[in-house]
Every structure is written in C-alpha cells, then in structure tokens.
Amino acid sequence: MRGGAGLPEPPEPRPSPPTSHAGGWPPHDVPSAADLTAAVREFLESDVLEATEGRTRFLARVAVTALATVGRELALGPELAEEHRRRLAALGVADERALAAAIRSGALDDRAAEVRAVVRATVADKLRVANPRYLEADDGADA
Q1: Rounded Cα distance, 14 and 31, in Å
Q2: What's the pLDDT tens digit per position in 81-105?
Q3: DSSP per-residue string spanning 34-62
Q4: Which contacts qualify for 118-122: CB closer than 8 Å, 24 or more apart?
C-alpha cells in the first residue's frame, strides 16, 4: 500500500490513444470513439433538433450536451489525468482520497498555498471537460 492513509495504490493511468488517423485505441480502427461521438452529436444537432419540439427537443439538447462532454473527455482526458497525477505527486499523495486525508490530518498545513493551487487546477480541469463556459466567467481571483 503506497496510496497514503492506508489506501491502496491507484491503478496506472491508461495510455493515450494514438494521434494518427488510424482510429482509436488498439485494436480498433476508424471510426474512433471520438469520431462516433461527434457524428451522433452532429446528427442530433442538425437533424433531430430541427425536427422536434417540446420534451423530445429538450431531451435531444441534453443528449447533445452529454455527447459534447464525452467528446471533451476523450480528447482531454489522458493529458488532464497525467497532469493531475503529477500535481498530486508533487504534494506527496497518490490520489484525491489521500489528499483529503492529508488535509484533514493537518499534514499539509504548511503547504496551504500549494494545496489551494492543486485543488484550483483540479476544478479547472474538471470544468474544461464538464462545461468550459464556466471557466470564461473566472476572474482569476483566488478565494
């Protein structure tokens, strides 16, 4: 156990998918998961939304939003996961549970500014995937 606070070590992050046009994760070919997600999103936006109204139109918009989130996670996920892992390692913790335990125990009290920066970066990364528009409203103030 190396995860701190008696927690098991987190699994290794999975490797990034290839960046070539050969497709997604091996052994899969074209279209990749990102390509399929984009195609369904485009279909919903261009055909379904225009042809529906009321509840069905609303649910189609929800589906478009969900697919946009999935697309961003597919595109950004591996890079953000590696950056997150590095930030946590710089604090000497293996994962968010270990970070929370270290904060609760006071083990990082003398590094409050670093902890705040890591937490802020984590929230920003989550917003990059979930809803990047929320980042546009960020005035840069550190609470």
Answers
A1: 20
A2: 999 999 999 999 999 999 999 999 9
A3: HHHHHHHHHHIIIIIHHH--HHHHHHHHH
A4: 118/87, 118/88, 118/90, 118/91, 121/83, 121/84, 121/87, 122/84, 122/87, 122/96
Are the CB atoms for 82 and 90 separated by under 8 Å?
no
* pLDDT over 50 (residue 115): yes
Instruction: Copy the structure tokens of residue 90.
Output: 């710089």
Annotate 76-121 with DSSP letters as a single string: HHHHHHHHHHHHHHHHT-SSHHHHHHHHHHTTTGGGHHHHHHHHHH
Residue-wise pLDDT for 13-47, tens only, equals: 555 554 444 456 678 788 889 999 999 999 999 99
Q: How many residues belong to the chain?
A: 143
Cβ contact 17:24 at 8 Å: yes
- pLDDT for position 124: 97
Task: Decide: 93 and 107 in contact? Cβ < 8 Å.
Answer: no
Q: Which residues contact 131 (CB under 8 A, 6 or more apart)?
A: 69
Which pLDDT tens digit goes with each residue over 118-141? 999 999 999 999 999 999 876 555
d(CA 10, CA 1): 10
